[in-house]
Amino acid sequence: MAQGALTQLRERFKNQIEFHHKDFPLRDVTAMAAEARRCAEKFDKKGQMHMLMLNGQRRWTLSQAPQNIWAKYARGVGADMAEWRSCMSSGTFRSAVKSDKNLGLRMGVNSTPTIFIGEKKLVGSVPFKALAMAVRAQMN
């Protein structure tokens, strides 16, 4: 529900507010998933990798080889697979993902999703109306 509400928020307040996504992996596999998404981003013209990762999370978290699932997603968004695999094996984004998590810890994040609108912290699946209300309050 949170992702749908954020999509609505982006559409409703287009060109009025900025969105910044930060990774907050709670386990090693989700940290690797964040790296896989980042390695595919430059090829992902429509931002589909993030949605594929979210929608397939149950499947890849239970998989013995989640990298194969992520590779399928990366291929689907048009990634150069040799470059994507090189990025994954080199740990190009490992420190950036760790840095995002450390920022989240400093800001008091302890679960996902956690959304900040200005100084207001919203935790869990927050409906669009509540998000929109917080944005309007921040804009005033």
Write a brief caption for the model:
By secondary structure, this protein is mostly helical. The chain has helices at residues 2-12, 28-41, 48-55, 57-62, 66-76, 81-90, 94-106, 128-139, and strands at 114-117, 120-123. It folds into 2 domains: 1-17 and 109-140, no CATH class; 25-107, no CATH class.
Polypeptide structure, described:
The chain has 140 residues and is mostly helical. It has two domains: 1-17 and 109-140, no CATH class; 25-107, no CATH class. The protein is built from eight helices and two strands. It has helices at residues 2-12, 28-41, 48-55, 57-62, 66-76, 81-90, 94-106, 128-139, and strands spanning 114-117, 120-123. Strands 1-2 form a two-stranded antiparallel sheet. A hairpin with a 2-residue loop joins strand 1 and strand 2. The longest helix is centred in the first third of the chain and has 14 residues, at 28-41.
